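Quarterly update from the structural biology core.
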Amino acid sequence: MAPKLSKSSKTNQITIIKFKRNKSTYVLPLDLSTKASLSLKNFKASLATSIEQSGGLSLVEEDEETNKLDEDDIEVPKSEFIDNLENDGMMEDNAEDTKNIIHDLKADDLVLALPKDKTSPYDNNWIEITDDSSISSLQFNDYDIIAFKHVDDDTFFVSEAAYDE
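Predicted structure, tokenized:
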């Protein structure tokens, strides 16, 4: 005879939430079955931990148009000998790039927002989450989008991923 499930046992309700900022997306599985887990503090702490573990938060977004190469602008490979001679200069360039990345991100450095219209989050109309009451009253579904920004950012902005075929 197969074992019977106890009616008093709780199943953990894991919900997958997408936290988005500009072109960055962090997909986090969150246990939202208890009131304590439905808190602004919990959301921010989970997001801050995942951002730290992925290398930090970039404060500067790269422009797609400037990163594209023209057909005439083909990079010519350099020899390793030249790379060794220019190593000091390249280290300075890398230091400049990492200056715009926050590695020790705190939960208080993040601001979260919900879309005004859940069906069209890419319209970039956001309602800032200021307390737990706005989160606890909502029913979250898998892959719902929550926007986030750094406290130094001006506004919330989310762009939809575009794939070239």
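Helices lie at 40-53, 64-67, 80-85, 87-98, 132-136.
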